[in-house]
Amino acid sequence: MHAKSSLVILCFALLLSACSSEKNTFPNRLYHNTTAKYNAFFLAKEKIIELENLFQSQHQEDYSQILPIFYPVDSATIEQNEALLKEARELASKAIDWHRISKWVDDSYFLIGLIDYYQANFDDAINTFKYINVNSKDKDLRHRSLIQLLRIFTDLKKNEDAAFVIDYLSKESKINPDNKFLLFKTLAYYYDTRGEINGKIGALDKSLEFVKDKKDKSRINFILAQLYKREDLDALAFSYYGEAEKGNPPYERSFFAKLYAQQVAELNKSKDLQRVRNYYSSLYDDSKNRDLRDVILYERALFELKQNGEEEAERLLTLAAKEEGKNQIQKGYIYEKLADIRFDLKKDYRAAKYYLDSALVYFKPSDPSHSPITKRKEVLDDYVIHFETIIRNDSLIALSLLTPEEQELIADAFIKGEEERLLREAAKKEEPKSSGIFENLLAFSGRGSGENFYFDNAVALQQGSIDFFRNWGNRTLQDNWRRSGQGFQSAISEPEQNIEIKPSPSDSIQVEDEKPLLGQLPDKESLMAQIPKTEESLKVLREALDISYFELGKLLFLDLKEPDPGIGYLENHIEKYPNSVKKPESYYLLYLAQTEINGDARRYVERLNKEFPESPFTFSVNNPEGATGNLAYLESSKKYEEAYSKYYSRQYQEARSIIRSTLEAYPLTRNTEKFMLLDIMVSGKIDDRERYQSRLENYIQNTEDTGLLNMARNMLIALTGEKPKTEQKNEGLEAVARISEEGDDRKSESDSEEAEEVTPYKENPNQTHIFVIVLEPKQAAEAKGLLADLENFHSQNFSNARLRTGNMNLNSENAIFIVSPFNNAERALAYREKFMQDFNTSSLNSSDKDNSFLISIENFQELNKRKDINEYRNFYKKTYQ
Fold this sequence. Notes:
By secondary structure, the protein is mainly α. The chain has 41 helices and four strands. Strands 2-3-1-4 form a four-stranded antiparallel β-sheet. Strand 2 (804-809) and strand 3 (815-822) form a beta hairpin. The protein is globular, with a radius of gyration of 35 Å. The termini are far apart. Keywords: Signal. InterPro entries: TPR-like_helical_dom_sf. This is Gliding motility protein. Residues 1-20 form the signal peptide.
């Protein structure tokens, strides 16, 4: 008994001594190695593995693009799992502090470096991995740290540091298979960021020699297949797609591997077109592919495009947009391709713009397609503004020239035409029914085809709603606001160019599938109210047309590379608005366009010299070989200093001589506007007052340099003692909505306090309105149930209103959720009041609700262009609150 007690005491004493982290003895090392590995280090590593698995599970693969080599480190996931990382850091730190003599200390430092990397503390992570490389005796861990350093340097675009690490690792021996696999993947990532496709393919191919996980192997094979397909190496792509199907990959990857393998092997080369189409049909009919039908229709549309079947491709893409789909980004590609067809093949720039609007709804700012689409859309946004201004204003002016009786007849005809159109659309939605035996038997009892049941018959429903409208007026809300905004006017007159006018193909703020329209007709009074009745109203419309004819012609020629329609709009501009301040520039653009198509450019040279001998555009056409670029800019800068010196010393004629000779030698440089203002300053000294004032006013209306514009304004104020009465730029466009929507119920500018404010927004209470909720992009991504909550709110409180919901990214700081349409501001205000009182959702707090606002259609288009929500809020508070 005594011996046993002694043994227990001895063991206990040994255990106590082993707990010390100072004594480097065998029992100590054994204890600390065991407890560090299986407690703190193990638990910390498991938490990091849990986070990395979240990156993978929450990442939605975009198979239309080359898959990323590493699953992206999602900042939102990092923020949501801060507690997890904090706990992992604490555990790894304990493994270091409590078990200093264990062999897992350096591994724990590695985990802390990873945590810093995931939390974007890159400097700390770099220092940690460098420390491990210098101090650790574990060769495998040193290699692993160097590989992680290579990834960080690649992330940060520190190519020289990355190249140094690659060189260092290339000289290391005995790199274990796991590290070799990770090294070659990281090398592929490095080459990918540098755009070196051959290096990327070689590194990925080499990584396959060391991969152990079958799912990793499948994914790398898929990426290689995509890369070879992009390089038109179809045989290699086919082989790697086949390998990607092995290893029990996710069904979606297996589906795309089969689909793309068939494409590179047979579909694109097959002469049996029907067999190819049958292949796509079989994929579509397979119930396992229900969530991928949008992809199948999209790929078939691409196939039809290669067969020059643009109409069929557009039809298929339209169907694809209506499929629910599993990956929402696919909708973005569908709308983008629809835009391509309209832009490249049909030159329908208006439809292309609206399709791109819809595409952007489905792309995040970080997606590769977001930035190029945004840039493409800039020109098309301007095109649509000016195109629709011409359609609307020309029509309104034409209507204003008719007698009231004629106007009423046209309004009646338009409403009747809308009735017929709605009935035709309803008829198109009636699909042919089955002619099977059972259906035929039902037909004999009067129940066949469903057409005898009122609520199954779209035409009957539409006719009923039209009859209701005739008797009771328009009790429901406008549904397709883009079409209703321009339909009446465009029915009256067409633009002089032969451009097809169609309803908007897609709503940039309305992403739900279209439902059948029920009898939405404009009332006669609202149509008549749009027609201008005063000379002031007509003047505003004409000013906007002056701008739009010029800008549209310029845009078509310079940006869209369409000289012929551009020439048409520019010639219309100078014919309809011969006194426009933009006339010399129109002449110049016509000169350039006629030169490009080998037309009669000389007549515009003669007109410029005759009508505008002092214009910089005249100097340019007189000296088409004049120097341009940086050299011309530098030389003209020296001449400007010389001319200004002469002006300052009151040698005005000498100053003018230098100005004119410089403009002739170096026309249209970055200094041209400075020279023109200096020439006007000279004019103020040696010419009569009237000429000086006229030149200043023209300069103010034409210059785009803010500093020079302010200087010219001050000069004019000093001359006349009052501010310029008009500033043509943008004024006409901003006033269009007020004139077209409010009719005669307007205050004159002199009576309105708001007329003096610098705001692009106008009060349009009778115009269709939108209700807007603004959230930060991160908050919007988390508000997954908001649209569903809004739909439930509408079904309970506005069941007959046919309200639509949608969302889009306005800019990088703001995502917006939208409810539309409301016929006027009054109805929109009533909706907001009900929303503030009764709408409840976990996705919004009270501040989010308070920040919601209303906006008219015209103002929304301006907001979508300017992207400045605070600017609109100031207007909103004064106008609606």
